[in-house]
Write a structure and sequence with these properties.
The protein is α/β, with parallel strands linked by helices. The chain is built from 10 helices and 6 strands. It is globular.
């Protein structure tokens, strides 16, 4: 029986492309670019080296320079390291202004009455906590049920971060479900830990492995309907 649902933050509880696009328009006013494509490329390059930044092999600044420099280059714009870091600063400022949709807020309100909710997220500790505060997530999920890779020194998809959450909650793997947008981090991580997994694949990505989620949804409306049904069963 399902007893807890945990969520990813970025591009799951809110649309991460919005602050990226807003930052570009502020930082490069009047310039044109395929912002959806550049955003997705930045996520791809971030995933490639995130573990190295988490372990300290490279700095977070080096990670930002790598992912933004490569993402923009893929779409015809060359930026140097200082420019990448300046853009990242504007991007982070915009992330402090993020909001969930009213539908997502109502879903969390309803789910919180029926079972335990939590979050597992990759990223620097304070940066991710700033997002939690901006979204108002603590109305339903207290900080003690939020696990951040920057605090633990290990991130998704590694089993250890899922195990830390499971042990704290005192539940069995089969009693837990994880919801996330990233196949590599969220689905592989959750299934590797023995959890149920819901792939919120609202960007229409292809699975890059043989492990399959328990459920795949393509829209916020589908996600809400699925989770409400799972809690009702």
């Amino acid at each position: 029986m399902l007893k807890a649902i945990l969520f990813d933050i970025d591009d799951t509880l809110y649309d991460l492309s919005i602050p990226f696009k807003e930052a570009f328009r502020e930082f490069f006013p009047g310039e044109k670019m395929d912002l959806e494509g550049a955003f997705l490329a930045s996520r791809k390059y971030s995933d490639l080296i995130y573990d190295r930044s988490l372990s300290g092999e490279i700095s977070m600044a080096e990670m930002y320079i790598y992912r933004l420099g490569n993402a923009f280059r893929d779409y015809g714009k060359i930026i140097d390291g200082p420019t990448a870091l300046q853009f990242q600063s504007v991007y982070e400022k915009r992330q402090h202004e993020i909001r969930m949709t009213e539908e997502m807020e109502r879903m969390l309100e309803e789910l919180s009455r029926k079972m335990t909710l939590g979050i597992i997220t990759n990223g620097p500790s304070e940066h991710q906590r700033d997002k939690v505060r901006a979204l108002g997530v603590e109305r339903w999920i207290p900080m003690e049920r939020i696990w951040i890779s920057g605090d633990l020194g290990v991130g998704k998809p590694h089993k250890e971060i899922f195990e830390a959450a499971r042990k704290k909650l005192g539940l069995k793997p089969e009693e837990l479900c994880f919801v996330g947008d990233a196949y590599g981090h969220d689905i592989l991580g959750a299934k590797g830990a023995g959890w149920k997994a819901v792939w919120f694949n609202h960007r229409g990505h292809q699975a890059t492995g043989e492990v399959m989620p328990d459920y795949e949804v393509r829209s916020e409306q589908e996600l809400i309907a699925l989770l409400e049904k799972q809690c009702a069963d």
